[in-house]
Design brief:
Layout: E1 3-8, E2 12-13, E3 18-27, E4 37-44, H1 52-67, E5 73-79, E6 83-91, H2 97-105, H3 115-127, E7 139-146, H4 155-167, E8 171-177, H5 183-192, E9 196-200, H6 206-218, E10 220-222, E11 226-231, E12 236-244, E13 248-249, E14 254-255, E15 258-262, E16 266-267, E17 272-280, E18 287-298, E19 301-311, H7 315-318, H8 323-339, H9 343-357, H10 362-376, H11 379-385
Parallel strand pairs: 2-19, 4-5, 4-7, 7-8, 8-9
Antiparallel strand pairs: 1-3, 3-17, 5-6, 10-16, 11-15, 11-18, 12-13, 12-17, 14-15, 18-19
Helix pairs in contact: 1-2, 1-6, 3-4, 4-5, 8-9, 8-10, 8-11, 9-10, 10-11
Length: about 400
Amino acid sequence: MVAIETDVNRPYVPADGATLTATVDVEPGTGSGSRERHILLCLDTSGSMDGAKLDQAREGASWVFGLLEPDDYVGIVAFDSDAEVVMRPQRWGDTAREDAMHRVEQLSAGGGTDMYDGLDSARAALDSLGYRPETDDAVRRVLLLSDGKDNNHDPADFRELAADIDGSGIRVLSAGIGTDYDEETIRTLGTTARGEWTHLESPGDIESFFGDAVEQAQSVVATEASLELDAAAGVEVSEVYRALPQAQEVDVNWSGNAATVPLPDLAERESQRVVLKVHAPTREELGARSLVDVTLTASGERASDRIAAEYTDDNAALAEHNESVSLDHRQTVVRTELGKGNVAAAETEVEKMTRIHGEDTAVVEEAQRQTRLVDEGGRNERESATRIVDDSRIE
C-alpha cells in the first residue's frame, strides 16, 4: 500500500506570513512482482561505437535476455545516420534466444548519430503493443545508450520528444558513455521522461546499466505515479525538485491553485522524496492552517497528507526549526546544480548552508566534498553527485 508523509522546516509562522521548506516522502509499499516488462533497447551504432563499446552493448543485450520472464516483451532499435528496428517488441516466451542473439550479433558500427530518430522509433515500437494506461499496468522502459551527439537536434528538441514519450507511459533511462556525448541531452531525456540519466565511464559498465535497469523494472509496484498539489488561497509553491532517487528539478504547470508533480514509477525498497518551497500568506486569524493538500496517485491507488503550519505570535514557537527539512532542500539544489556542472551555483548554495547550519554539519560537509569532487573531476563525478547514498542527515 503506497503512503506519503509531509514535513516542514517551520511548523509555526507569524501572522504576516513566511516561506517554508517542505518535504513529501513517498513509500512505495510492496507488490506481487508480476507486472509485464516492455523493454526496448535503443542502441547507438554510429562509427564511434565500433570496438569495445559495441561488443559490450551486445553482451549487455545478452544479459537482458537472461533476466526476462516469458510474459515480458523486448525489442531493439539501433541508430546511426538512420534508425532501424532490429527486433520489433515481442513476447520473450515466444522468442527463440538464438534468433534474438543473432540479431544482436549482426549489429555493426558506422555512420553518424540520429539519436532523435532512434528514440522516436523506440517509442513507436513500444506503442505498437497497444498499451493503454487506463487498462494496462505494464512497466515500459526505453534503455538508451549513446557515445555521441545528435547530428541535427539540440536538447530542446529532445525535451519535447521525451515529454511525448513520457505521455505514452514510457520511462527513459539514458546512459552516455565516454567523453563525447551531449550531457545535456542525456540528462534531459532521463529527467523529462521520469527515468534516470547515467554516465558510464567505460565499456565494462554497459552490462551493469542494462541489467540494473531491467531488474529495477521487475520491482515496480505502481506506474503512472504523481503528486497532486492543491494549494490554499494565497499560497504559492516554488522550487520543486525530486530529491530521491536522483536529484532532478521538476517543471510544474499550474492550473489555478492545482498542479501535478510527475514521479518515476514506484519500486519496492526505493523511497522517493519531493522537496519544495511554500509561501504562507498573511492571515489575520491565528491557528493551524492547511497550506497545500497533497495526494499521491499511482496505478489506481491514492494516499493523502497535507503541508500545514500554525499561525502564532508566540516567539518561542516561532523559533522552532526542523533543520533536516531545510537541509534536504538545499542539498537537493546543490546536487542538481552539480549534475549540470554548475559548480559556481552549487558553491553559492553551499555557502548558504554553511552560514545557516554550520560547517561541521554532516550534510554540509558532504555538499562541500561533492562540490570539490565535481570541480576537480568530470562526468562521472557530476552524475554521482545527483544520488544520495547515505540518507542520514544530521549528526
